[in-house]
Specification:
ten-stranded mixed sheet, Alpha-Beta Plaits, 5 helices, about 30% strand, 2 domains, 10 strands, alpha+beta, about 30% helix
């Protein structure tokens, strides 16, 4: 068995796992070879460093196509794996409250109230994670841990956003960590979430594929930068119009 590192643009797929009559990352790859992804991502969530396992010796360049890139191989790994996700927020939130919420939610807790339950499985809701906020032009929340529950990162993010907006108090978060309830926090939008990496592997990388991924995101960045300036110009024009 080998491990393969892959990146993908989540906006092109209906999630990572195979679903009937849906275009998914795993579904597209399984048209060519049998594999399973180590980490599940929801519809719209992109990845820079997910990992798949396969019994077949595959050519990375041959099975990389629009929106999916295979760029590393490993035959050596060590458990437990550590996963890192990043969620990007606008900076118009109370930074001190954001930091306090991240500090409270970090550590080992029962995260029952912060995930979508899978009724087909018996789940362990006790997880240990760290959430670190990085403040710049936007706020980036980095989540690291060995495992995450279904929609856990997005629901925790939405709780942190609510605290940052003053819609929820820190005491409310404390209560949600202490007592289970059926009134769960809804998930934040998926398109601002990124599966950054899964640690525990010794990969060798294909430089050509790395440059190909870089070029794709470079083009996306250029497009987003131009759109940002269009929006900024439009807002300034509208705000300066006399009524």
């Amino acid at each position: 068995m080998i491990a393969v590192k892959l990146a993908y643009d989540g906006g092109k797929f209906f999630g990572s796992q195979i679903q009937k009559d849906k275009v998914t990352v795993e579904g597209e790859l399984n048209k060519f070879f049998e594999c399973r992804l180590l980490s599940r991502t929801d519809r719209g969530v992109s990845a820079l460093g997910n990992v798949l396992f396969t019994e077949e010796e595959i050519n990375l360049r041959r099975y990389s196509f629009d929106g999916i890139w295979l760029y590393g191989k490993s035959s050596s790994w060590k458990k437990p794996f550590k996963k890192k996700y990043s969620y990007f927020l606008s900076s118009d939130l109370d930074i001190d409250r954001i930091k306090e919420a991240c500090s409270l939610l970090s550590g080992k807790h029962d995260f029952y109230n912060f995930c979508k339950r899978d009724r087909t499985k018996k789940l362990d809701y006790i997880k240990e994670i760290e959430i670190n906020p990085y403040i710049g032009e936007c706020i980036r929340l980095d989540f690291t841990g060995e495992s995450f529950l279904w929609e856990m990162v997005r629901r925790l993010t939405n709780a942190i956003i609510s605290v940052g907006k003053g819609e929820m108090e820190i005491e409310d978060l404390k209560d949600m960590l202490k007592e289970r309830t059926e009134k769960k926090i809804p998930p934040a939008p998926p398109e601002y979430l990124l599966l950054v990496d899964i640690e525990g592997f010794e990969f060798t990388y294909d430089e050509y594929m790395l440059r190909k991924i870089e070029k794709y995101f470079e083009n996306m960045y250029r497009d987003a930068f131009l759109k940002k300036n269009i929006f900024s110009y439009s807002l300034n024009f509208l705000r300066g119009t006399d009524v």
